[in-house]
Amino acid sequence: MRLIFIGPPGAGKGTQAKKISEKYSIPHISTGDMLREHRKSGTELGMKAESYMNKGELVPDDVILDMIKDRLSQDDCRKNGFLLDGFPRNLEQKQALDKLLNDIGMSIDKVLVLEVPDDVLTKRLLNRAKKEGRTDDTEDVIKNRLKVYHDITSPIIDSYKNDGLVYTVNGVGDIDDIFGELLKILK
Ligand code: ADP
C-alpha cells in the first residue's frame, strides 16, 4: 500500500501515521523527522535545513528530493509500500514524486487529508511547544507554517483530487475515532 498523508502542522498526522504504519506494516516516512535527525547528528544536510526549519519555511526541493529518492529505493518501501508524511509539500515536489514513481513503475493508492481549523492548530502547537520544545513551535513561526501550508501545500490537494485519489478526514476529536475513520478509508 502506497499512501500520502497531507494536513496542516499540528493536525495529528504523525500520531495517526504511526498507527497506520503499525497496522499495515508499512514504513512511516516523515521528511520532518528525517530532517530533525540530520540536524541532531549535525550532518551537512541538517545544517543546510536548519535555518529554513526555524523560520517555518520549506527546505529547498533538491535537499528533500535526494532524501526521498534514497529512502524510497530501499527494500522495505519496494516490498511493502510506504506512508509519506510531510512530502510532497509543493507542486514541484508532487511532480518530482510522480516522475520518480513512474520511473520505477509504481503509483500512489490513496491520499489522506486530515482537516483541522487554524485556531485549533495554533492552540495544539503552542501546547506542544511547552512539552517538546520544538524550535519551530513559537507563535510567529507557527503563523508562518500555517501560511505556507495554505498557500503552498494545500494546492497539491486539488491536484491529487484531479487524480481521483483524495480522502478527507476530520482531525478534531478522539485519536482512536479519527484512526477508525482512516481505517474505513483504507479497507
Ligand atoms: P509540521 O508539519 O508540523 O510543520 P514537519 O515535521 O512535517 O512539521 O516539518 C518541519 C519543517 O521541516 C517544515 O516547516 C519545513 O521547514 C521542513 N520540511 C519538512 N518536510 C519538508 C518538505 N517536504 N519540503 C520542504 N521542507 C520540509
Task: Describe the fold and architecture.
The protein is of the alpha/beta class and 187 residues long. The chain has helices at residues 13-24, 31-41, 44-55, 61-72, 75-80, 91-103, 118-132, 139-153, 155-162, 175-186, and strands at 2-6, 28-30, 82-85, 110-115, 166-170. The longest helix has 15 residues, at 118-132. Bound molecules: adenosine-5'-diphosphate. The site of adenosine-5'-diphosphate has 18 residues, from helix 2 and helix 3.
Low-confidence stretches: none
Number of helices: 10
Largest sheet: 5 strands, parallel
Classify the beta-strand content into a percent band.
5-15%
Topology pattern, helix = H, strand = E: EHEHHHHEHEHHHEH
Measured between the Cα atoms of the first and last residue, the distance is 11 Å
The whole-angstrom Rg is: 16 Å
Average pLDDT taken over every residue = 96
Task: Kindly summarize this structure in a few lines.
The chain has 187 residues and is α/β, with parallel strands linked by helices. The chain has helices at residues 13-24, 31-41, 44-55, 61-72, 75-80, 91-103, 118-132, 139-153, 155-162, 175-186; strands spanning 2-6, 28-30, 82-85, 110-115, 166-170. It is globular and about 40 Å long.
